[in-house]
Amino acid sequence: MTAEQPGSAGTAAVAGPGDAASRAWVRRLSCSGADRDTAATELHALLLRAARFEIGRRRSAFPQLGGADLDDLAWQSANDALMSVLRRLGDFRGDSRFTTWAAKFAIVEAGVKVRKHAWRRREVLLPDASWPLVADIAPTPHQFAEAQDLLAAVREEVDRRLTAQQRQVFVALTLNNVPIDVLAERLNTTRGALYKTLHDARHRLRAALADRGMDTMGRAP
Amino acid sequence: MTEQERGDLGREFRRMLGPGGPELGCDECFDQLDAYVELELSGVRADVAMPAMRAHLTGCSACRDDHDSLLAFVRTDPENGAGR
């Protein structure tokens, strides 16, 4: 998913939703002329701060990205987010302050961009699943036995109950830790559609475990 | 097994198998993320007020990252009018 979402770009009424400051943002961005340009410049500054903030939070996970790459991504994210916010101005309902609503676009856009950039030369559909080791998820002896049984059951049910597509998505997202936006791009789909597939796969697996008398803790329900 | 050990193990399997129960999709999560964050900042139990949102944030690591970042940004950005 990118921050761009389908929606209409209506002109919000002057007495529109939200607090006074939010209504002022919408009014200024909806008009024409110098005040609108000034508001758009101020909004871009907010979006750039949000994008840099998000990229700063993620940079430790992507040490291969240099400072210039990261700031370029921040600018691209802010530019794209600005377009999305202006296009969707009529969608603002005042459920939050305008600045929070707008910052969301930049945060999501920057997160998507940095993940895609970091994975741009990596294989995402690996032939084998990276199943966690029981010892890694169950460091104590008491946990070990339950985790061993449950993990073995999950592995069997992944092969038995999931469709090929569900298995591919489940393995990539939950076992091989491929970012959902990266996988969506490679499979030419959306974050929302992929998550629906993952949700259905998880539902099948939980039902299969319940059939075995296990819940996600490996206990009798 | 202690409650702590059971909780840790449960988290690992919830990460794999999801939260269970009703949850939003990613697009709905995006639409409601700003309202959820401001509920949290206002001290309201957002997870109680919007349980399907909370469930999605448990199950979707990408949306959870977006949430955590937006919450942190709004909380700290000095020019965002946050922290009121």
Percent of residues in beta strands of chain B: under 5%
Largest sheet composition of chain B: none
What's the helical proportion of residues of chain A? 55-70%
What is the number of E strands of chain B? 0
Strand content of chain A: under 5%
Structural class per helix/strand content of chain A? Answer: mainly alpha
What is the count of helical runs of chain A?
A: 9
By CATH, the architecture of the largest domain in chain A is named Orthogonal Bundle
Total of domains of chain B = 1
Give the distance, in angstroms, between the N- and C-terminal Cα atoms of chain A: 36 Å
Biggest interface, chains and residues, is: A-B, 53 and 43 residues
CATH class assignment of the largest domain in chain A: Mainly Alpha
How many H/I helical runs of chain B?
Answer: 5
- The quaternary structure here is heterodimer
Report how far apart the termini of chain B are: 44 Å
Quote the CATH topology of the largest domain in chain A. Answer: Rna Polymerase Sigma Factor, Chain: A
In which range does the helix fraction of chain B lie? over 70%
Low-confidence blocks of residues of chain A? 2-14
